[in-house]
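Customer escalation, tier 2.

The customer says the design service returned an amino acid string that "doesn't look like it belongs to this structure." They asked us to rerun it and document both sides in this ticket. The original structure tokens are below, unchanged.
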């Protein structure tokens, strides 16, 4: 089995780092106020500023918290099902920071795959995708591929009849075990 595991929002809570930055220069926003993928529009933040700031957060990769405890053990358990690749959409300039973060947190994976745009993930050859992006989830679903949506405030509007939703990676492992 080939599993595509996303980084931002699934194993790395980079939005928390961005919120810390944002809240020091703009109006305060909490994670639960981020109810849409393109939430920056609601808060009148320029799209390019947001993405530049989010990428910049990776320069301080050591301060980015994991989304949950025991990710090292959980990703090791996930790898028992087969090949687990980190599949992420990002600027290439942040790849080395992400890889440092993965090593620091002892995340088990086989390959590191970076695409330019998230929905491009659906073109890749994987049996299961674990992602938090509602755009990626819908595209992967449309391609008739298995998507496990890692629950975040920005993906709550995705109907559960279209996808499998989990609140942690241990739940994803249980779902993959049933495949």
């Amino acid at each position: 089995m080939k599993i595509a595991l996303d980084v931002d929002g699934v194993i790395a809570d980079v939005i928390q780092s961005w919120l810390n930055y944002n809240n020091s220069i703009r109006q305060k926003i909490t994670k639960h106020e981020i109810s849409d993928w393109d939430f920056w529009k609601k808060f009148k933040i320029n799209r390019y500023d947001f993405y530049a700031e989010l990428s910049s957060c990776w320069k301080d990769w050591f301060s980015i918290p994991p989304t949950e405890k025991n990710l090292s053990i959980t990703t090791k358990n996930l790898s028992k099902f087969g090949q687990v690749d980190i599949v992420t959409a990002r600027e290439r300039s942040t790849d080395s920071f992400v890889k440092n973060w993965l090593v620091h947190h002892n995340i088990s994976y086989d390959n590191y795959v970076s695409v330019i745009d998230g929905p491009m993930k659906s073109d890749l050859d994987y049996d299961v995708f674990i992602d938090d992006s509602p755009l990626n989830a819908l595209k992967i679903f449309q391609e008739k591929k298995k998507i496990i949506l890692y629950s975040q405030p920005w993906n709550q509007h995705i109907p559960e009849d279209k996808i499998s939703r989990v609140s942690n990676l241990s739940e994803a492992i249980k779902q993959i075990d049933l495949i």
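Tier 2 assessment: The sequence is consistent with the input. The CA atoms of residues 134 and 157 lie 8 Å apart. Residues 14-25 form the longest helix (12 residues). Sent an explanation to the customer and offered a walkthrough call.
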